[in-house]
């Protein structure tokens, strides 16, 4: 055991901070010569993985040599770890390869040769490294000898089995003796016999995860022997990992090995505390399918000795097994009596047990043997929401009639089958809008790569940017694809899919325009279908969460396979006669100061190949595409959105479990209004604005346009200077050249990111140009709603929003055309402080320019190009032109969404909470003839103070003359209410100043500091009550977090909220390429992060009120038959219904702030956090 643990001391992991997909990951550099004795002792308790030792040794040698080269040279920015064969390129030189991050080609040398160290003499540091490598090699040899005898995992399992067998028959309290039953060890042997050698070979990734589990197990047993820490907090991560391993074994019918794994934990006093009821239940369900009542009895005995009480799932498995083997009357009767003793009701088995048809039949067969007259009772009626804000909305006193979709039933049913096919395939390949010629040689070279292992691997390969991707991001991306595929396959079982198909087909009767049913909300109608179903919807959502450690182990294994398996010819761009296959991917470390971040990079020859091939296809996960049918309605925290693809109701960082636990523990009637609002937003049907799309694509393929925010192609990227120095070059010259090269690479990466983002959006829109589609919605932990498809949605940029239209059109009516014109002027940003009448009059004055923009957008006067939102303005110009030229503008059917944006919505909520009259007037909460613009008001106060300072001789105030504008201060004013600091505000203003071409760049720093101070001072004068409320919220959160708790509250609609900010937790995962250190910032087992908890509480609380107001508006607009969607505080509807939406919006804002919000919050905080001190 000691030698195995010593292996961990050999680990070295390198890395740095990364923000990827909303998650903060850290790859930390750890070096043996910097560790103290305690660190080594802790490490020895964390690893016994030996399968990758040989590869690790080679990796270590390469890393150390790379580090020496980096320290002894002055300009190498990246170093390859594994040997890479460099194919000769058609253009460029060795210097170009170095600029791309490659070192010299070592293909011609011996694979085992060591790269000569740059420099003439060996330093003492290099000698120290050499000696250390020798010591590590000796330890490794000793370790390999020990591991050949027996693995730690095997020894622990055998030890646990021996300990268990000695006492497994001592306890039979829970279950009667079942020795008379036919199901016995013979059946177990038959099941175990199905585990073939092929199964063992396939489990290499799982075995790695299992070894990590055993390593964690050792730590759990040895740490905290006093047992003072909460069991839930101590073991949550280990429990999740163990449960995942059990499910992995059971999914491959390896029941015996799964049972042995559980028993090995039960046989250890520390491991027994890790076992949970879901672990036992998954084994109970598996053995129930085999009809092994003997194993069921054994597990119940073990469960009883562990102090766990069986639940409905446990007893359902037992009764199912009894039904399969036709158990004796007395055994079944004893089981039912024990169930009553445990406080469980028989009727709940069929409503909360999530049984499918066959399981229900077996359970019912067993029950009816004892109680012949028993039949499952009908489902109980659901409670209605109790929030005072919605009592009249859910009241059944008045008949309700809800709007329909603009499609017939048969068309919707056809679309559902298309969506089902799309999600079951997991990926979709569409045409790219980026058109370039394709060469014959490139096509022939690229095509073999598509025949490589799984489709998602090839998709990941071709989605890699030329500069590569961080290893942790690439690893997690591949692992999540496997995880999602596993969940989708579970849902595609015949009995599950048939039941889902039946329910959804019936559900479409509520939405189709040619059906009569319209008196129910989507959630209510689906719940009524549940009462008639043989399978509860909960069965579809029994999604097993894989821990981060398992995902990283799986993803690392897949990356290793890709690096080794995917190759390409070396002579594609040269006349070389010798043809070899070289790797397409390679692993490098990018140096950031003293840290190194692992990257996976494609070979430069492959980048050139892909660029010249100009692939005309793009492959996406089906989950990033809009849906072709209406989403499944949200009926619970675990059911809704996509048909098959798993979707979280509350999006959060991976590894965060507290949000889901709160939602599941919350009374379901408290969530009804939130679920209904999400369903209404998701049921809005969309289509593509084809004329605008075609214009954008034409500019996109014509080198883009900076003015119109269309990214240019990569051919316009700057070319980095060559790595060439003269012999007498100074260090300053070298530093300057390095900065220039780094800036070029940064600009190139940014251009690639923007270009790719636009390509994805436009390609998806082009693919859907003749379709009607939907955006399923979910929310963040504050309740703010978001569409699930990440690339193409209405929360996107000006370009993306201009492409979208409502699928359902409505006649303009008497006021619709006027609202279109006002909407156009709002998009220009020209008349912010003018009344609506003045804006309408201005639109009529420039009607000729509007019509010219619609008719000749690229060849006319181009008025639309000089406004704040040019593409949306152009779409509105075209809609106005069509309306005014129609025979009857009032009858013109318009599909264009019209927006009504909040006036700095956060400040509106603060002004209403504090009853601040002056602040309310500034953000249009008070009646006035002319709309107030808080941004212009702050800019005016800042300009007045600047003039006074300039008169006193302030040089920076004099430099800023003529540069103070609304745009300069808008972002800072908008985000102050959401917690932006003076430092953040300075950065925002600095960015705006840099965008001004004629502002002297040497004064940007000083000017940004000066202006940020003036903005904060001006806001304090305008909103006196806002700062007081913010300070109270901040102090409250500070006290709560310092007491060891996270800040929680409940929104006026009943949505529970908890802030996920905790101290960091590190988990090191070993791999043959490199070791990764996962940093989690939302683990409930860690102490709260006081700084984040207190700083985030005020903005998060305001965001929760903002989302509450939006949901109230959505529900009541739907009740009135309006089409409604939102972008947070910006509400969209048809031009003909803007007046109605405005009325509902104002009514619900008054309704919301008529409630004692701050008083209720104070009462909740006192009750939750102070009751134990009273």
TrEMBL record:
Gene3D superfamilies: 1.10.287.280, 5' to 3' exonuclease, C-terminal subdomain, DNA-directed RNA polymerase, N-terminal domain, Tetratricopeptide repeat domain. This is DNA-directed RNA polymerase. It holds the Pfam family RNA_pol. One of its GO terms (cellular component) is mitochondrial DNA-directed RNA polymerase complex. It comes from the Eukaryota. DNA-dependent RNA polymerase catalyzes the transcription of DNA into RNA using the four ribonucleoside triphosphates as substrates. PANTHER family: DNA-DIRECTED RNA POLYMERASE, MITOCHONDRIAL. PPR repeats lie at residues 276-310. It catalyses: RNA(n) + a ribonucleoside 5'-triphosphate = RNA(n+1) + diphosphate. GO terms for molecular function: DNA-directed RNA polymerase activity; mitochondrial promoter sequence-specific DNA binding. It comes from Vombatus ursinus. The gene is POLRMT. Keywords: DNA-directed RNA polymerase, Nucleotidyltransferase, Transcription, Transferase, Transit peptide. Residues 357-683 form the DNA-directed RNA polymerase N-terminal domain. Its EC number is 2.7.7.6. It is an enzyme of class 2 (transferase). InterPro entries: DNA-dir_Rpol_C_phage-type, DNA-dir_Rpol_phage-type, DNA/RNA_pol_sf, PPR_rpt, RNA_POL_N_sf, RPOL_N, TPR-like_helical_dom_sf. GO terms for biological process: mitochondrial transcription.
């Amino acid at each position: 055991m000691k030698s195995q643990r010593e292996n961990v001391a050999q680990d070295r992991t390198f890395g740095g901070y990364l923000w990827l997909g909303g998650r903060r990951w850290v790859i930390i550099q750890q070096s043996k010569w910097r560790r103290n004795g305690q660190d080594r002792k802790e490490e020895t308790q964390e690893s016994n993985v030996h399968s990758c030792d040989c590869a690790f040794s080679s990796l270590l040698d390469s890393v150390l040599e790379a580090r020496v080269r980096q320290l002894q040279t002055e300009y190498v920015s990246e170093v390859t770890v594994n040997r890479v064969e460099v194919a000769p390129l058609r253009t460029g030189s060795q210097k170009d390869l170095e600029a791309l991050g490659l070192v010299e080609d070592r293909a011609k040398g011996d694979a085992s040769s060591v790269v000569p160290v740059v420099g003439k003499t060996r330093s003492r540091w290099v000698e120290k490294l050499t000696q250390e490598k020798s010591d590590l090699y000796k330890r490794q040899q000793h370790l390999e000898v020990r591991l050949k005898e027996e693995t730690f995992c095997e020894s622990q399992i055998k030890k646990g089995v021996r300990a268990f067998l000695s006492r497994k028959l001592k306890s039979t309290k829970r279950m009667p003796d079942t020795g008379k039953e036919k199901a016995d060890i013979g059946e177990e042997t038959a099941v175990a016999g199905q585990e073939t050698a092929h199964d063992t070979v396939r489990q290499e990734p799982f075995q790695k995860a299992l070894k990590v589990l055993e390593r964690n197990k050792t730590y759990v047993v040895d740490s905290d022997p006093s047992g003072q820490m909460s069991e839930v907090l101590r073991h949550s991560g280990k429990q999740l990992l163990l449960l995942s391993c059990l499910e992995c074994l059971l999914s491959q019918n390896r029941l015996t090995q799964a049972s042995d794994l559980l028993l090995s934990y039960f046989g250890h006093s520390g491991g027994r505390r890790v076992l949970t009821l879901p672990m036992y239940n998954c084994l109970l369900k598996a053995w129930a399918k085999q009809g092994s009542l003997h194993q069921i009895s054994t597990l119940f005995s073990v469960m009883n000795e562990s102090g766990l009480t069986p639940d409905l799932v446990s007893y359902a498995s037992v009764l199912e097994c009894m039904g399969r083997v036709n158990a004796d009357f007395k055994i079944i009767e004893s089981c039912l009596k024990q169930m009553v003793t445990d406080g469980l009701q028989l009727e709940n088995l069929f409503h909360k047990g999530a049984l499918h048809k066959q399981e229900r039949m077996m359970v019912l067969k067993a029950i009816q043997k004892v109680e012949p007259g028993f039949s499952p009772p009908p489902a109980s009626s659901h409670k209605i929401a109790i929030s005072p804000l919605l009592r009249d909305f859910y009241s059944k006193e008045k008949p309700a009639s809800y709007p329909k979709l603009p499609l017939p039933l048969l068309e919707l049913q056809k679309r559902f089958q298309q969506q089902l096919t799309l999600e079951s395939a997991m990926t979709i390949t569409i045409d790219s809008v980026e058109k370039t010629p394709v060469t014959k040689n490139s096509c022939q070279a690229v095509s073999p790569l598509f025949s490589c292992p799984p489709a998602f691997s090839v998709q990941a390969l071709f989605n890699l940017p030329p500069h590569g991707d961080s290893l942790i991001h690439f690893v997690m991306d591949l692992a999540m694809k496997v995880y999602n595929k596993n969940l989708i396959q579970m849902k595609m079982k015949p009995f599950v899919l048939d039941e889902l198909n039946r329910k959804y087909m019936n559900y479409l009767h509520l939405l189709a325009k040619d059906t009569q049913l319209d008196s129910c909300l989507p959630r209510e109608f689906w719940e009524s279908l549940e009462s008639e179903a043989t399978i509860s919807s909960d069965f579809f959502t029994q999604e097993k969460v894989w821990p981060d450690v398992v995902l990283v182990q799986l993803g690392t294994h897949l990356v290793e396979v890709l690096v080794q398996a995917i190759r390409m010819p070396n002579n594609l761009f040269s006349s070389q006669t010798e043809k070899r296959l070289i790797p397409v991917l390679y692993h490098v470390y990018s140096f950031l100061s003293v840290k190194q971040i692992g990257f996976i990079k494609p070979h430069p020859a492959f980048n050139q190949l892909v660029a010249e091939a100009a692939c005309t296809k793009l492959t996406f996960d089906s989950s990033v595409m809009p849906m072709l049918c209406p989403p499944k309605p949200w009926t619970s925290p675990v059911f809704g959105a996509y048909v098959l693809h798993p979707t979280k109701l509350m999006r959060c960082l991976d590894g965060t479990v507290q949000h889901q636990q709160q939602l599941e523990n919350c009374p379901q009637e408290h969530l009804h209004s939130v679920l209904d609002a999400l369903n209404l937003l998701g049921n809005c049907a969309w289509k593509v604005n084809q004329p605008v799309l075609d214009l954008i694509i034409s500019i996109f393929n014509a080198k883009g346009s900076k003015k119109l925010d269309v990214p240019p192609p990569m051919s316009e990227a700057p070319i980095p200077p060559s790595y060439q120095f003269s012999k007498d070059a100074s260090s300053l010259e070298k530093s300057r050249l390095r900065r220039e090269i780094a800036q070029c690479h940064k600009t190139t990466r940014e251009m690639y990111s923007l270009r790719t983002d636009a390509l994805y959006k436009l390609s998806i829109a082009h693919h859907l140009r003749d379709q009607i589609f939907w955006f399923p919605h979910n929310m963040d932990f504050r309740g703010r709603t978001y569409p699930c498809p990440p690339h193409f949605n209405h929360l996107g940029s000006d370009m993306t929003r201009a492409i979208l239209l409502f699928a359902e059109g409505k006649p303009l009516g008497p006021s619709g055309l006027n609202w279109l014109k006002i909407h156009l002027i709002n998009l220009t940003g020209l008349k912010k402080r003018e009344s609506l009448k003045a804006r309408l009059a201005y639109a009529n004055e420039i009607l000729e320019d509007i019509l010219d923009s619609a008719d000749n957008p690229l060849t006319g006067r181009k008025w639309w190009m000089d406004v704040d939102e040019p593409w949306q303005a152009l779409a509105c110009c075209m809609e106005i032109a069509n309306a005014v030229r129609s025979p009857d503008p009032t009858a013109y059917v318009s599909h264009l969404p019209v927006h009504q944006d909040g006036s700095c919505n956060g400040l509106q909520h603060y002004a209403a909470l504090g009853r601040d009259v002056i602040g309310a007037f500034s953000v249009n909460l008070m009646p006035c003839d002319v709309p107030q613009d808080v941004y212009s008001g702050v800019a005016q106060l800042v300009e007045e103070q600047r003039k006074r300072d300039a008169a006193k001789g302030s040089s920076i105030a004099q430099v800023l003359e003529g540069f103070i504008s609304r745009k300069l201060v808008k972002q800072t004013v908008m985000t102050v209410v959401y917690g932006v600091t003076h430092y953040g505000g300075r950065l925002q203003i600095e960015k705006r100043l840099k965008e001004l071409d004629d502002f002297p760049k040497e004064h940007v720093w000083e000017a940004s500091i000066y202006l940020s101070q003036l903005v904060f001072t001006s806001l304090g004068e305008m909103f006196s009550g806002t700062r007081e409320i913010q300070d109270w919220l901040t102090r409250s959160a500070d006290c709560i977090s310092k007491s060891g708790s996270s800040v929680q509250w409940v929104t006026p609609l009943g949505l529970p909220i908890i802030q996920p900010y905790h101290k960091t937790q590190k988990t090191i995962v070993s791999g043959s390429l490199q070791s990764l250190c996962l940093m989690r910032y939302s683990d409930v087992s860690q102490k709260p992060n006081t700084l984040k908890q207190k700083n985030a509480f005020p903005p998060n609380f305001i965001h929760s009120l903002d989302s509450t107001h939006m949901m109230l508006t959505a529900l009541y607009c739907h009740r009135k038959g309006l089409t409604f969607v939102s972008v947070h505080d910006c509400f969209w509807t048809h031009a003909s219904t803007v007046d109605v939406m405005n009325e509902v919006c104002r009514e619900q804002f008054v309704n919301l702030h008529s409630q004692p919000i701050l008083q209720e919050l104070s009462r909740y905080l006192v009750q939750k956090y102070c009751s134990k001190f009273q």
